Amino acid sequence: MAVLFHYLLAFSTQMLYFYRYNGKTMQSQELAEAIRMHRKAAKLSRVQLAELAGVGKTVIYDIEKGKESVQFDTLRKILKVLNIKIVLTSPLMDNLND
User: Fold this and answer.
1) Residue 79 domain flag
2) In a domain, 46, yes or no
3) Burial of 86 from C-beta contacts in 10 A (0-12 / 13-18 / 19+)
4) Residue 88 is inside which H or E element, if any?
5) CA 58 – CA 46 distance, rounded (Å)
6) DSSP state for residue 95 in the 8-state scheme
7) In a domain, 48, yes or no
8) Which DSSP category does 14 fall into?
9) In 7-90, where does DSSP find H-type helix?
10) Could you report the average pLDDT of every consecutive run of 10 residues in the chain (98 residues)?
11) Strand, helix or coil for residue 8
12) Rounded to whole angstroms, how far apart are CA atoms 85 and 98?
């Protein structure tokens, strides 16, 4: 059974920031390590993960090496295969829940 991790994405006018569930800013290398850890736990090669996600094998290599300029849709496909969930949050959404 795959482990489910929650990552929060916060959008500003200029950048996309990754946050862990505890609010700490997530660096691209930490995301790379999470993806690599899940891929290995699933006993998938980079090629196998790429095929399952419908992306090129070099994308998996690039992400695992910490490349920051990856299309969101591509990242979403990879995370879906690895059963990693993305949770969106923002101050506006927080105010709606109050």
Assistant:
1) yes
2) yes
3) middle
4) strand 85-88
5) 8
6) H
7) yes
8) S
9) 28-41, 46-53, 57-64, 72-81
10) 42 42 60 91 96 95 86 90 81 72
11) strand
12) 24
DSSP state of 24: P
Cα 97 from Cα 30, distance rounded (Å): 29
Tokens of 10: 């916060």
CATH code at 40? 1.10.260.40
C-alpha distances out from residue 70 to 56, 94, 97, Å:
12, 27, 31
Distance CA 40, CA 22 (A): 24
Give the CA distances from residue 24 to residues 9, 41, 69, in Å, rounded to whole numbers and listed in that order: 11, 24, 21
Contact 66, 29 (CB under 8 A): yes
Find the Cα–Cα–Cα–Cα dihedral 29, 56, 41, 68, rounded to 10°. 10
pTM: 0.68
Map tokens 């299309």 to a residue.
71
Alpha-carbon distances of 68 from 2, 16, 24, 94, 97, rounded to whole Å: 25, 10, 18, 27, 31
